[in-house]
Design a protein that fits this description.
single chain; 3 helices
Length: 67
Amino acid sequence: MDNVLVERLWRSVKYEEVYLKRYETMVEAHANWKTYLLFYNDRRPHSAHGRQTPSEVYHAQLDQAAA
């Protein structure tokens, strides 16, 4: 099950970022991937989470655990 989540993440990274751009250097690629992952976690809604971002789901779970 753990591998499914990682495979899904990297499929999104490849199809929404890597395959759409041509990087000149690894430094440029790293910067773009970092930006994409911040978008993926903080701004991109996920259907599996009821159209919430992973960050929203994570912080809601922390709040429930603290209560």
